[in-house]
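Structure in, sequence out. Go:
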């Protein structure tokens, strides 16, 4: 791509030289115009590279890749014991904050917002890093059955996947996207990128938080925030209503995806486990039994055709203490350790 751009620029410069010469009839004027234009372009290019490098050093840029940067590469593949995982987990944001492996070799493969389809792509890309008989935790969230990648509009979501997945696993892979959002982020959103140079956002340190940041009233507001967000995202007026057509279609697709994830694991002698992470009572109390049947239980019954283990901590009283979280939904560092220990014990 860069090579083609350089060739194209060189061609245009030569064309400019010819046009000016033909128009003016003066070789000196043509050379002068060519030289001035070249200097301007070189100055612009150098300035662009300088600013782009400053953008790449901002938290605004790095926060997009904090999760994907944790992934190990293929260098020294089997010589690095970190790759011979006993257990890994997939999953979206709650899973990112739910698992921390200390007493065994494990890895958290959550990159933030993540559909079951993206889970499967990550599993396909990295499954060989697990030991034979290794455990694969497949987290499910209240709306996992209806969530799909086409609901994600943020390009940064796809940028981080470009850094960890084989191009063959990325739909409509584009080298132009790589240039714009990864190599030259100044092109992705010029005004926002330039603003970040002079007024950067804080580093995302949520994985380091070990206390509850919200009071009781704020906790309720946060729980309602998530409910309102999901209602808007999935176009729901009544959480207890049967699934409308778009959500039902996505659910059927996710049933297909989850079935094949299970099949994929079993064929490779891995141990898949379905798991619903816990949440505070402020949030879990907002989901009725009707909702759980429509969005969770019926989904699991149909997708779990091999009857693999299913651990449901959604309403677990021992894990609903707000002090284990930093909001109404995400476990803090202390809660993460406690929950991971609980899961490992329950898997024995």
């Amino acid at each position: 791509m860069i090579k083609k751009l350089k060739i194209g620029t060189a061609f245009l410069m030569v064309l400019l030289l010819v046009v000016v010469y033909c128009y003016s009839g003066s070789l000196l004027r043509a050379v002068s115009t060519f030289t001035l234009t070249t200097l301007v372009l070189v100055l612009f290019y150098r300035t662009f590279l300088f600013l782009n490098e400053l953008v790449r050093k901002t938290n605004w840029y790095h926060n997009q890749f904090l999760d994907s940067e944790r992934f190990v590469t293929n260098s020294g593949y089997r010589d690095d014991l970190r790759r011979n995982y006993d257990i890994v987990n997939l999953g979206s944001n709650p899973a990112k904050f739910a698992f921390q492996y200390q007493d065994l070799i494990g890895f958290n493969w959550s990159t933030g917002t993540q559909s079951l389809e993206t889970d499967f792509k990550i599993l396909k890309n990295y499954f060989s890093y697990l030991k034979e008989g290794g455990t694969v935790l497949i987290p499910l969230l209240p709306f996992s059955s209806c969530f799909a990648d086409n609901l994600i509009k943020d390009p940064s979501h796809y940028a981080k996947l470009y850094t960890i997945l084989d191009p063959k696993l990325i739909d409509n892979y584009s080298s132009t996207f790589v240039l714009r959002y990864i190599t030259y982020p100044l092109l992705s959103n010029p005004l926002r990128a330039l603003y970040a140079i002079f007024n950067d956002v804080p580093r995302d340190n949520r994985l380091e938080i070990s206390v509850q940041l919200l009071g009781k009233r704020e906790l309720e507001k946060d729980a309602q925030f998530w409910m309102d967000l999901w209602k808007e995202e999935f176009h729901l007026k009544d959480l207890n209503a049967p699934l409308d057509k778009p959500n039902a279609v996505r659910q059927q697709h996710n049933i297909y995806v989850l079935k094949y994830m299970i099949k994929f694991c079993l064929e490779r002698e891995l141990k898949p486990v379905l798991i619903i992470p816990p949440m505070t009572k402020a949030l879990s109390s907002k989901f009725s039994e009707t909702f759980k049947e429509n969005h969770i239980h019926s989904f699991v019954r149909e997708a779990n055709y091999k009857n693999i283990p299913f651990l449901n901590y959604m309403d677990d009283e021992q894990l609903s203490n707000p002090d284990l979280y930093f909001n109404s939904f995400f476990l803090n560092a202390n809660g993460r350790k406690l929950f991971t220990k609980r899961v490992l014990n329950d898997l024995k």
